[in-house]
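Hi there,

I know you've been waiting on this one. I reran it after we fixed the sequence typo, so this is the corrected version. Both the input and the resulting structure follow.
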Amino acid sequence: MSNEYFKGISKIQFEGAESDNPLAYRFYDETRVVGNKTMKEWLKFAVAYWHSFCANGGDPFGEPTQSFAWNTKSDAVDRAKDKADAAFEFISKLNVPYYCFHDVDVVDYTNDINENDRRLQALTAHLKQHQDASGIKLLWGTANLFSNKRYMNGAATNPNFHVLAHGGAQVKAALDATVALGGENYVFWGGREGYMSLLNTNMKREKAHLAKFLHLAKDYARSIGFKGNFFIEPKPCEPSKHQYDYDCETVIGFLREHDLLNDFKINIEVNHATLAGHTFQHELQVAADAGVLGSMDANRGDYQNGWDTDQFPNNINELVEAMLVLVEAGGLAGGGINFDAKIRRNSTDPKDIFYAHIGGIDTFAKALILADKILANSEYKALRTKRYSSFDGGAGADFENGKLSLTDLRQYAIDNGEPDMISGQQEYLENLINRYVL
């Protein structure tokens, strides 16, 4: 590497809870065994290419505030190679095992498909050199099918077949790059796969087209040797009024209806969960119960804003409850935890991106430690099991096993009179979590 973009910063090391070093991990020790896995295996942290190396602090009301030293050359491929050099320097110094990308974040695209393929192939070779030299792996790749103006009405759900075909060309190239780089997964986020108005929308036809598109992508990827998972990332709205991947339940129903559950799992973003009116842990539990908990986008929203603020995660209570779901589910199915988060517009020092990632990584690591202790040492699981104990034997077990009729239920209610009031002990359980957190 000819340039050092993050000067004066060494590889981030684990120093323990007593450390006051802001450029060190206090809780994330990748070799520490929690339950039956190391932290590195549980969490599989990844740096998101787009926010960390492309987001420049600009917003609809102001110009960019970030100035990137790797963004100076006029040639798109040369400029992208410098960005890749900076990315791998950062990821290596952060000391995490993975990264992930959209195609257009790796290198700027034009409206010429052949030129785009040439550019992405050149960068794929460059990224492969970095991966081989560093040991850093690609967690997942994806294609950006929402930023270009041609996708204003969606890509796979666009009413114009010509636009859908362009989306197919872009996904093919992104899949080729993902496979060439040994990517472990591939993600679809339907950023505009939805509608703005039902007045001009044939919703049934659009969803059928989306399913056909996903089948084509899946079949092509398998034909070129991709053995990983495909992920759908739910989001309810923004930029569309309504998106077809609204939440986990919606996605699971769609995958089941269109025979995609064998190949697809779910990538859950915290801020998308809250925009859908759910908690992060709710969406994790829905996916875990269906056996499709694949991966996570780590971030948080702002309680005062009803949009996707993509802030770095720092809410320990939220993440402890999330890790309780993760640990009980046995971990993620193929995916990891990528930081789909960006530093704030007024965070302009090169160290700020390190502070942001270190804080998020340490919060997840501490939450994992606490969740494991709660499950192993407290009465958390026992209380929940006890709450459903009436279904573990007798008539309750007969009901679960399909042995009772509605008439049988009526007779049981008559024979046993009014049921006792049994506390759900919510406050006690909330205090139990806080005993470990505090």
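Quick highlight: The two ends are 45 Å apart (CA to CA).

Best,
R. S.
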